[in-house]
Amino acid sequence: xxxxxxxxxxxxxxxxxxxxxxxxxxxxxxxxxxxxxxxxxxxxxxxxxxxxxxxxxxxxxxxxxxxxxxxxxxxxxxxxxxxxxxxxxxxxxxxxxxxxxxxxxxxxxxxxxxxxxxxxxxxxxxxxxxxxxxxxxxxxxxxxxxxxxxxxxxxxxxxxxx
Length: 162
Description:
There is one protein chain. Helix content is 28%, strand content 32%. The protein is of the alpha+beta class. Strands 1, 2, 3, 4, 5, 6 and 7 form a seven-stranded mixed β-sheet that branches. The longest helix is centred in the N-terminal third of the chain and has 22 residues, at 12-33.
């Protein structure tokens, strides 16, 4: 049986730059999602051929401004996984899907990680990703085009994916 490749720890500067991009991406994401109850799911394929998943449930309101996180540990895990996905040296690919609770059907949009940032996912691919497995009770989600998240670059960023 072949051994899995080992993960190489990224440089501190690359992690710091990815953390900055993660905070910017999450702020932009929360803004475009707007008011409502949202679930964020992030799945990443690591370079050692394993898959890692994180999920966080959020409630956003703009009048008054409020962000409620259902479970702080879940949100921290999602944020950490996003840092490594955006940094890129230990993650081969990653997808972030946001599901918003709505009255008739939940709505979903998604982004893929490319070149250190979140890019809107093709809706046909997203539709395939959110179809419930046969025999599993699940609600169908209506998919829509994910908004482009503005990328604010930091001139001090370093790293292979910065």
